[in-house]
Every structure is written in C-alpha cells, then in structure tokens.
Amino acid sequence: MRVLVVEDEPKMAGLLRRGLAEEGYAVDISADGRDGFGAAVSRAYDAVVLDVMLPELSGFEVCRQLRGNDVWVPVLMLTARDGVDDRITGLDGGADDYLTKPFHLKELFARLRALTRRGPVPRPVKLTAGDLRVDPTSRRCWRGEAEVVLTTKEYALLEAFLRRPGAVLTREVLLEHCWDFAFESRSNVVDVHIRALREKIDRRFGVTSLETVRGTGYRLRADGGRANARPR
User: Which residues are in the Response regulatory domain (predicted)?
Assistant: First the structure.
C-alpha cells in the first residue's frame, strides 16, 4: 500500500513516515500543498494524509482541486483546529475523514485501514439539464462554464428539479422537499424563491428553463432552456 503524506512540519512528517513504514506502507512525503497536489495527480496512491495548514495551497484547496480533477483517492485530513466549521469545510471539499491533532498513531492507522478497505470513492453523478448542472457533493451550480452562486434554498429547489427534469412538481412537493413542517402549503415562499432562482439560472443567460404550469406548480425543461434561448 502506498500513501502520500502532505505535511510541512518536519517532525510530524518524520513521525508519520516512520510509523506508516512500520505498519508496512510505502510512504512519500510532500512538504507543501502545490507539490502534494502534483504528486497525487501523477501517481497512484492508496490514500493521502493531508494536513490543512500548508504553504502554497491549503489542504482544503488541495482536496478540492483533486476532486475537481477526478482524483478520488481516499483523503484523510489532519488539522490542529478542531472547530466544527473546519471539519465541515474539509468534508464538503471532498475529504473522506478528518483527524484533529494531537492524535494517536494507532487511531490514524485504523482510519487509514478503513479508508483503504473502501477503496477510491466513485465520482459523484452530476445532475444536468442541457448546459445547466449541479454537483451534489459540493452543492455548486454551473450554466455552461459560468458558475452560479445559489443560496441554500435555491440550491435545494434546483436539485429537486434536476432529479426529475421535465416533470411537473407541485408547490406542495417542493415545500416537502425543501422546507420543514413550519411552512403551510398555502405560503408563497416557493414562488418567491422560484423567482430568485430564475433570475440567476435563466434571465442572466437569456434562457427559460423554469416554466410555470398554471394551477399546478413548476417544471424544469429537460433541455435546460437552451432550445428557446434568446440571441445575445
């Protein structure tokens, strides 16, 4: 088993190299994020142990770029910061597990064994309609090559439509999918958020993909609206 350790602190890197070697791993060391990214995309590793605080590129950015380049090797992130927001950032960026310093080497070994048993994570399926697409893992959205920044509720609505392109979704279905039970089905909250979503994914690009079905609800065109795009 070959493991890449991306760690800029020499004592920690040496400790990890020795410990992993004693466990039978072949170990490569990178001392900064840019070098670690280059190593991970150019060689086949069974796992990557990735520190968060790195020169050149942070561990968060390294992980995000790996996933963006379809490198799905298991990633175990290390950090001296134990805040919930940091853990969420790492996991949302594509990390598979997260270990806070200081830690016991035995725990790191156990987590690596679990990750390598599972093997590379398959690429998550992107949801698409024409040139409109979202990535459920990162919760990001694009129209063509342009990224569209959505609020949490706007993203939830769009994902609901993209999971059933061409189907009519009632306001009740959208409320159930995107809101908690505090909202009444007669509320206009869906219509308000649909208008905001249209501004971002349609009007900005001169297309109409989100259609109103009178008396029923809304539908996302399966072609993403490009077939009826206005000349720009």
Answer: 2-116
